[in-house]
Amino acid sequence: QVQLQESGPGLVKPSQTLSLTCTVSGASLTDNSAHWSWVRQPPGKGLEWVGAITSSGTTDHNASLKSRTAITRDTSKMQFTLKLYSVTPEGTDVYYCARRRELSAGGFIDYWGQGTQVTVSS
Predict the structure, then answer these.
(1) Does residue 66 register a pLDDT over 80?
(2) Is 92 helix (H, G, I), strand (E, B) or coil?
(3) What is the 3-state secondary structure (H, E, C) of 7-64?
(4) Residues 14-38: what's their mean pLDDT?
(5) What is the maximum alpha-carbon separation in the chain?
(6) Are 96 and 112 in contact (CB under 8 A)?
(7) How far apart are CA 27 and CA 24, in angstroms?
(8) Is the N-terminal amide bond of 42 cis, ω within 30° of 0?
(9) Residue 116: helix, strand or coil by DSSP?
(10) I need a surface site. Which of 17, 38, 40, 45 has the fewest CB within 10 A?
């Protein structure tokens, strides 16, 4: 079965860069039937898609965050990462990594990580 696990700092200062890693097991990051996504959820709010990386390494981002995000991968380590520059505002969000099926395979998220809390505070 496919498993995803987020890791990274639980605290980051405003205006600094957040770096998160998702470690994958049970699937290949180069499997062309899937994309690998980052989603976040502020407290009391709905889910917000941050961005994704495809099996070929192409990235896509939420337009509101595009200029401040970078998504990369390391296929040998079975990991993909998120960097979010100049984080704002202060607060605590939960970040999830997830696998999303290609449209030809349904186009839905079938596996989620458990989520990791990130607090932005000075």
Answers:
(1) no
(2) strand
(3) ECCCEECCCCCEEEEEEEECCCCCCCCEEEEEEEECCCCCCEEEEEECCCCCEEECCC
(4) 96
(5) 45
(6) yes
(7) 7
(8) no
(9) strand
(10) 45
